[in-house]
From TrEMBL:
NCBIfam families: more_P_ylases. It is an enzyme of class 2 (transferase). PROSITE patterns: PHOSPHORYLASE. The keyword Glycosyltransferase applies. It comes from the Bacteria. The lineage of its organism: Bacteria, Bacillati, Actinomycetota, Actinomycetes, Kitasatosporales. Belongs to the glycogen phosphorylase family. Residues 13-123 form the DUF3417 domain. The gene is glgP. Its EC number is 2.4.1.1. Keywords: Allosteric enzyme, Carbohydrate metabolism, Glycosyltransferase, Pyridoxal phosphate, Transferase. This is glycogen phosphorylase. InterPro entries: Agluc_phsphrylas, Glyco_trans_35, Glycogen/Maltodextrin_Phosph, Glycogen_phosphorylase_DUF3417, Pyridoxal_P_attach_site.
Amino acid sequence: MKAIRRFTVRPVLPEPLRPLHDLARNLRWSWHTETRELFRSADPEGWRPADADPVRLLGSLSAGRLTELAGDAEYLGRLAAASADLAEYLDGPRWYQEQRAAGAELPSAIAYFSPEFGVTAALPQYSGGLGILAGDHLKAASDLGVPLIGVGLLYRHGYFRQTLSREGWQQEHYPVLDPNELPLDLVREADGTPARVVLALPGGRSLHACIWLARVGRVPLLLLDSDVEENAPGERDVTDRLYGGGSDHRLLQEMLLGIGGVRAVRTWCRLTGTPEPEVFHTNEGHAGFLGLERIRELAAEGLDFDAALEVVRAGTVFTTHTPVPAGIDRFDRGLVARHFGDEGELSGVPVEKILPLGTETYPGGEPELFNMAVMGLRLAQRANGVSTLHGAVSREMFSGLWPGFDPAEVPITSVTNGVHAPTWVAPEVFRLGAGQVGEGRAHQVLAGGPVADEASAQTGTPRRWDAVTGIGDQEIWDLRRDLRGQLVTEVRRRLYASWRRRGAGTAELGWIDGVLDPDILTIGFARRVPSYKRLTLMLRDRDRLRSLLLHPTHPIQIVVAGKAHPADDGGKRLVQELVRFADDPRVRHRIVFLPDYGMGMAQKLYPGCDVWLNNPLRPLEACGTSGMKAALNGCLNLSVRDGWWDEWFDPDFGWEIPTADGSAVDEDRRDELESNALYALIEDRVAPRFYDRGAGDLPDRWIEMVRSTLVNLGPKVLAGRMVREYVERLYAPAAQARRALEPAVAQDLAAWKAKVRAAWRGVSVDHVETVTGDAAGGSAELGATLALRVRIALGGLEPDDVEVQVVAGRVDSGDAIADAQTFPLKPAGGQDLEDRWLYEGPLTPDRTGPYGYTVRVLPAHRLLATSAELGLVALPTEATGEGGGVLMR
């Protein structure tokens, strides 16, 4: 029979075991080894069936076992120590508090919005890298004491669970997640009733959501859930699946995340006394509507739209994660219009003000679509990509929003992603390092705090990381083999389970006992399966791959995992192609595909691999943090120079796969060239180095690369480093900018911008001349100073409203200025009879060869984050006078 109602019966813990409840409800256990071991030892046999989830484990313990543990003095001692450690972790001052005590002007709180969070496999609310990054961001913020509030949605079916058919076709399953069985607590009002947020929908309908709290160390993560009785069936399903449904469904999800998320934060702060956030961080465009809700709040306080927009922009940080326009959510403008205004949400905020925020005004844009990333950029004064290369790609991709500026000047910076080492470093690796520096210092190192001293700051490598150099070659090699052996065991277990689900009987699966070998070079490849990541590039020449797998003296073995989006049949075909190759009896002991890639699998996969493979189409990988996680475990990277590997590649850390990007080849030819380069690298350099044994039968050069990876690359890839950069470079300036915009100041700034925009058509560079120097003759000596005189029409603006610059540098054959430098020109006189202003200043060429300059006028105001903020620039015409805009050689 089927139950007509489901509910959760919580265990009643004996008084001595009560601290287990708080330890289980705070997700710090997911990265704190001692706490995980405490729960595992409570029931070693039940730990794996509970998916290493303390909440489920406690619910499965028998009364007899609880009584036994309550009388175990040794266990209670460990429990008391873990409980005290958590209390100190939650309440003690950390890096952020030390910075504030030292006088740093930091935000009182930051709200961090993301459509997905990968904190632990026990809370499956993620699909891939974006969610894992968001989870690592929260955990690192907690370790550093950063007062972050996370905001997301609670998906009742999560993403999906992946299995394979007998033919190797991906199949999706959506198990129902009961929040009462997850490490979550319902946020309640003071009277005990569940807290609610409500959104107005067209036609007089409403969307209600409750708020679930996940404790991520010191960081509260608020997850909105629409599956509540107040909603009609359609509205109850808004938070059913991550990245599911059509446009209307996705729009409602993103409205709930952004608008409902701000309301959830306000509720949380009201109920707990937490300071209101001064900075709002939008992790991708999905949460962009949060800016509109904050405008509505300010409008209710009396600010007009334009002034409220300035206040919101000042305190907003926007992070883009996609290097391709196809990865951005875009909605029909009519659909957006129906959900806002007096008939829907944000009553009092004019729809005609909302729609332009998401309009693609750049060449090639589609004006009938509402672009969430474009809105995110327009609602944020500070924006960033997630690696140095991705920052450059983003500036190029969005340059149309700043016409007249070179892509290099587009105000999008970059903060390279990092990974949360305590989550991803294997306990065995941690213990080896702790043996050198002590357990407490090892925890500090992995938390990613600042470098230890001035000498360390100059190299970027804290001295405590140098302790790895004292670990012997034999110890490192024994560790690597142990981790490889653990992976072999895990792969066989998972492969057996997968084949049983594919319909194989026990008698057919004896061969699995011989899959993989703990002494063979092991390569890992695991990620989502969009086409640009090229899951099957390794299959380009199957005979050559087989020869690598079965090499008589230098064999390799490959472990592959990954999920295709449920609607992506092309991605599913790639999965099936790889699975069918791995099913071949000739090679199935050397290459495997493991379904249902997730955090639990990844935590075994990264440490157990010797080489991490990444071969995307460059430059389509925004960052690619999986290789970072592998590196922290002593795994070497074999990757295309994309994402983070482009800026931190070093031959001591691994190998770069040569690429054919930028050359005039079609995609098929490019795959052929790059796959051949991949095969050659493995065959000629990677495998020989692994098997090249020296004294003591050890691969000395390989071990030295492992050591260098840990010592020199390790500190760079930490999420702690990443979060500190966000605090210092983005959060602190955003908070200071927000504090400066009192209502009257915001009104003045909005009025000034309106004045400048209205007058800008009348701003021009009318005449440029070289007063002294020989540039007019076509040459100048290095070090010579040229005196420039420029006449500018300001269209009714005052000199204080603008900045006049000379832009100079080396020029190419097309007279484009490269590596440009800017020099200010100063007013040298008032208006002439033609309403022009005179500006003068020197220019001193600092390099030989073809050199040129031009002059431009930019808006200038003390509250602008950059001179490009308004997207306005006036440049010379073709006939501005001698030297005017003419490139000097």
